[in-house]
Design goal:
Radius of gyration: 16 Å
Strand content: under 5%
Helix content: over 70%
CATH topology: N-utilizing Substance Protein B Homolog, Chain A
CATH superfamily: NusB-like
Oligomer: single chain
Structural class: mainly alpha
Number of domains: 1
CATH class: Mainly Alpha
Distance between the termini: 52 Å
Number of strands: 0
Amino acid sequence: MGDRRRGREYALQMLYQVEVGETGAEETFLTFWEGKNISEDARHFAESLVNGTLRHLSEIDSVLREGLEHWRLPRIAAVDRNVLRLAVYEFLQQPQTPSIVVIDEAIELAKRFGGEESGVFVNGVLDAIRKRLEALPAPEPPSEVND
Protein backbone atom coordinates (compact mmCIF):
# COMPACT_ATOMS: atom_id res chain seq x y z
CA MET A 1 0.00 0.00 0.00
CA GLY A 2 1.33 3.43 -0.94
CA ASP A 3 2.26 6.17 1.51
CA ARG A 4 -0.55 8.47 0.44
CA ARG A 5 -3.26 5.81 0.77
CA ARG A 6 -1.90 4.74 4.15
CA GLY A 7 -1.68 8.41 5.16
CA ARG A 8 -5.35 8.93 4.26
CA GLU A 9 -6.34 5.87 6.29
CA TYR A 10 -4.47 7.13 9.32
CA ALA A 11 -5.81 10.65 8.83
CA LEU A 12 -9.36 9.30 8.83
CA GLN A 13 -8.73 7.35 12.00
CA MET A 14 -7.24 10.39 13.72
CA LEU A 15 -10.07 12.71 12.62
CA TYR A 16 -12.54 10.18 13.99
CA GLN A 17 -10.60 10.06 17.25
CA VAL A 18 -10.51 13.86 17.47
CA GLU A 19 -14.26 14.11 16.88
CA VAL A 20 -15.56 11.18 18.88
CA GLY A 21 -12.92 11.27 21.61
CA GLU A 22 -13.13 15.05 21.80
CA THR A 23 -9.36 15.40 21.86
CA GLY A 24 -7.13 17.88 20.11
CA ALA A 25 -4.95 17.02 17.13
CA GLU A 26 -1.67 17.25 19.06
CA GLU A 27 -2.91 14.95 21.82
CA THR A 28 -4.20 12.54 19.18
CA PHE A 29 -0.87 12.56 17.34
CA LEU A 30 1.00 11.73 20.55
CA THR A 31 -1.05 8.63 21.28
CA PHE A 32 -1.95 7.52 17.77
CA TRP A 33 1.54 6.77 16.49
CA GLU A 34 2.59 4.58 19.44
CA GLY A 35 3.55 1.13 18.20
CA LYS A 36 2.94 1.87 14.52
CA ASN A 37 5.65 1.19 11.99
CA ILE A 38 5.02 3.80 9.32
CA SER A 39 7.13 5.71 6.85
CA GLU A 40 7.88 9.35 7.55
CA ASP A 41 6.18 10.33 4.27
CA ALA A 42 2.92 8.59 5.24
CA ARG A 43 3.05 10.06 8.74
CA HIS A 44 3.72 13.56 7.45
CA PHE A 45 0.94 13.30 4.86
CA ALA A 46 -1.54 12.01 7.47
CA GLU A 47 -0.74 14.79 9.92
CA SER A 48 -0.95 17.45 7.20
CA LEU A 49 -4.39 16.13 6.19
CA VAL A 50 -5.61 16.18 9.79
CA ASN A 51 -4.22 19.64 10.54
CA GLY A 52 -5.52 21.08 7.27
CA THR A 53 -8.96 19.54 7.64
CA LEU A 54 -9.30 20.83 11.19
CA ARG A 55 -7.97 24.28 10.25
CA HIS A 56 -10.50 24.61 7.40
CA LEU A 57 -13.35 22.72 9.09
CA SER A 58 -15.95 25.50 8.94
CA GLU A 59 -15.34 26.05 5.20
CA ILE A 60 -15.34 22.29 4.54
CA ASP A 61 -18.58 21.76 6.47
CA SER A 62 -20.17 24.67 4.61
CA VAL A 63 -19.30 23.05 1.27
CA LEU A 64 -20.64 19.73 2.55
CA ARG A 65 -23.91 21.26 3.75
CA GLU A 66 -24.42 22.81 0.30
CA GLY A 67 -23.73 19.44 -1.36
CA LEU A 68 -25.95 17.28 0.83
CA GLU A 69 -29.46 16.65 -0.37
CA HIS A 70 -31.94 15.44 2.23
CA TRP A 71 -29.17 15.02 4.83
CA ARG A 72 -27.97 17.10 7.72
CA LEU A 73 -24.27 16.87 8.51
CA PRO A 74 -24.72 15.78 12.15
CA ARG A 75 -26.98 12.89 11.02
CA ILE A 76 -24.27 11.35 8.84
CA ALA A 77 -22.24 8.54 10.45
CA ALA A 78 -19.01 9.88 11.95
CA VAL A 79 -16.82 7.75 9.67
CA ASP A 80 -18.62 8.89 6.52
CA ARG A 81 -18.63 12.51 7.68
CA ASN A 82 -14.87 12.44 8.20
CA VAL A 83 -14.22 10.68 4.88
CA LEU A 84 -16.20 13.47 3.21
CA ARG A 85 -14.30 16.13 5.15
CA LEU A 86 -10.94 14.71 4.10
CA ALA A 87 -11.98 14.63 0.46
CA VAL A 88 -13.40 18.15 0.46
CA TYR A 89 -10.21 19.39 2.12
CA GLU A 90 -8.23 17.86 -0.74
CA PHE A 91 -10.61 19.35 -3.32
CA LEU A 92 -10.21 22.83 -1.84
CA GLN A 93 -6.62 22.89 -0.61
CA GLN A 94 -4.71 20.34 -2.69
CA PRO A 95 -5.78 20.95 -6.29
CA GLN A 96 -2.66 19.15 -7.56
CA THR A 97 -4.40 15.88 -6.65
CA PRO A 98 -6.88 15.05 -9.42
CA SER A 99 -10.46 15.08 -8.16
CA ILE A 100 -11.10 11.59 -9.52
CA VAL A 101 -8.23 10.28 -7.38
CA VAL A 102 -9.64 12.05 -4.32
CA ILE A 103 -13.06 10.50 -4.94
CA ASP A 104 -11.66 7.01 -5.58
CA GLU A 105 -9.58 7.14 -2.40
CA ALA A 106 -12.58 8.39 -0.39
CA ILE A 107 -14.76 5.57 -1.72
CA GLU A 108 -12.14 3.00 -0.71
CA LEU A 109 -11.92 4.53 2.79
CA ALA A 110 -15.69 4.51 3.12
CA LYS A 111 -15.93 0.87 2.01
CA ARG A 112 -13.18 -0.19 4.40
CA PHE A 113 -14.17 1.77 7.50
CA GLY A 114 -17.83 2.71 6.97
CA GLY A 115 -21.13 0.93 6.67
CA GLU A 116 -22.51 -1.25 3.90
CA GLU A 117 -23.73 1.69 1.77
CA SER A 118 -20.95 4.13 2.68
CA GLY A 119 -19.04 3.82 -0.60
CA VAL A 120 -22.11 4.60 -2.71
CA PHE A 121 -23.13 7.47 -0.42
CA VAL A 122 -19.65 9.05 -0.41
CA ASN A 123 -19.37 8.68 -4.19
CA GLY A 124 -22.69 10.45 -4.79
CA VAL A 125 -21.98 13.33 -2.42
CA LEU A 126 -18.44 13.93 -3.63
CA ASP A 127 -19.32 13.72 -7.31
CA ALA A 128 -22.03 16.36 -6.83
CA ILE A 129 -19.61 18.59 -4.90
CA ARG A 130 -16.89 18.10 -7.52
CA LYS A 131 -19.25 19.15 -10.30
CA ARG A 132 -20.37 22.22 -8.38
CA LEU A 133 -16.79 23.25 -7.54
CA GLU A 134 -15.64 22.76 -11.13
CA ALA A 135 -18.51 24.94 -12.36
CA LEU A 136 -17.36 27.87 -10.22
CA PRO A 137 -15.31 30.51 -12.02
CA ALA A 138 -11.58 30.18 -11.42
CA PRO A 139 -10.14 32.87 -9.16
CA GLU A 140 -8.40 35.61 -11.06
CA PRO A 141 -4.65 35.87 -10.60
CA PRO A 142 -3.48 38.92 -8.69
CA SER A 143 -2.81 41.88 -10.94
CA GLU A 144 0.64 43.33 -11.06
CA VAL A 145 1.04 46.79 -9.67
CA ASN A 146 3.72 48.92 -11.26
CA ASP A 147 5.28 51.19 -8.70
